[in-house]
Amino acid sequence: MDVLAFIDEQVKAIRQAVGSDTALVALSGGVDSSTVAVLGHRALGDRLDCLYIDDGLMRKNEGPMVQGAFANLGIKVRILDATERFFAALKGQVDAEAKRKAFRDTFYKTLGDAVSSSGAVWMLQGTIAADVIETQKGIKTQHNILEQIGIDPLSKYGLRILEPIRTLFKYQVREVARALGLPPEISERQPFPGPGLATRILGEVTPERVATVREAQAIVEEELAPFSPFQCLAVLFDDRATGIREGQRELGQIIAVRAVNSQDAMTASVVQLPWDVLVRLQQRICAEVPGVTKVLYDLTPKPPSTIEYI
Ligand code: XMP
């Protein structure tokens, strides 16, 4: 791929589609949406509204990190607190696909409202090739797929959507991100799914359960950073297991740790972590994440497993 020619083409295509109107980009801080935000900013300058939706499902310190990284690039990011709306939509939902659909519907309704209140006509979105392929194969409904599965974003949510990187795979998006001058903490960042920590919770997604998995996720990322996995995650199980704390029986939470290598997220192999690293993960998670008494390491490649748990 000729990266510079790709950037040039996409900047021109965005300018041509948007004309003299304005556009909005929903930025999560991941490499895909960040790349699209910079492409959009090159094309439209201040006519692009960069919005970070705080859905309550993000990693630790995500909002300020994204705002800071973009401020260094001269791009202003606005934060919208939609936490309550997302938790209300997810309340009582336990089925994997039902949770994905509830997330997607809330995400686009929130965006539809943001677009109409900001006066933007277009929305730029960081859909990539793997998202489309996985959803079309019927494996799981990725949060950002609409038209490809027969949902018209204009009539359903009032959104006109542009997807400048929908033909690229993750490693190609990283090449574009580097060429656009995004800092390594974004261009080399692990993929993080749109529905955020909700994909790492089996059973109901509540603020308390998100807090548990968020804490464990931060430990996993910190401990596994030296291995540069394609993706590493902490997952909270729906069941509990009998444990012991200070000599007393404790029905504790179960956390699974997953670390995989992959090029395009379509297949993935498990990272062979040294035993002492696995032991440290177990010790830290049980000591630092309230209520956890069991930590597992997931040995399953993709396929037969998928990378996320829902
Ligand atoms: P799976 O779990 O299908 O994930 O093996 C493949 C890659 O896609 C990410 N993923 C998502 N990304 N919206 C996204 O933007 C989603 O709904 C979504 N679901 C999974 C996942 O983190 C992995 O990198």
Structure described in brief:
This protein is an alpha/beta fold and 310 residues long.
Primary descriptors:
310 residues; alpha/beta; Rossmann fold; GMP Synthetase, Chain A, domain 3; 2 domains; 5-stranded parallel beta sheet; 4-stranded mixed beta sheet; 19% strand; binds xanthosine-5'-monophosphate
Can you tell me about this structure?
Strand 7 (248-261) and strand 8 form a beta hairpin. The chain is built from eleven helices and nine strands. It is of the alpha/beta class. The protein folds into two domains: 3-187, HUPs (Rossmann fold), CATH 3.40.50; 201-297, GMP Synthetase, Chain A, domain 3 (2-Layer Sandwich). The mean pLDDT is 95. 41% of the residues are buried. Bound molecules: xanthosine-5'-monophosphate. The site of xanthosine-5'-monophosphate has 17 residues, from helix 6.
Secondary-structure blueprint of this entry?
Elements lengths: L2 H16 L4 E4 L4 H14 L3 E7 L7 H11 L4 E5 L1 H8 L5 H23 L3 E3 L4 H8 L16 H5 L2 E3 L7 H10 L4 H4 L19 H18 L6 E15 L2 E14 L7 E2 L4 H14 L3 E6 L13
Parallel strand pairs: 1-2, 1-4, 2-3, 4-5, 7-9
Antiparallel strand pairs: 6-7, 7-8
Helix pairs in contact: 1-2, 1-8, 2-8, 4-5, 10-11
The protein binds xanthosine-5'-monophosphate.
The site of xanthosine-5'-monophosphate (XMP) has 17 residues, from helix 6.
Q: According to CATH, what is the topology of the largest domain?
A: Rossmann fold
Terminal Cα span: 33 Å
> What sequence of helices (H) and strands (E) makes up the elements?
HEHEHEHHEHHEHHHEEEHE
What is the C-level CATH assignment of the largest domain? Alpha Beta
Strand content: 15-25%
Shape: globular
Structure summary, number of beta strands:
9
Strand order of the largest sheet: 3-2-1-4-5
Number of helices: 11
Bound ligands: xanthosine-5'-monophosphate
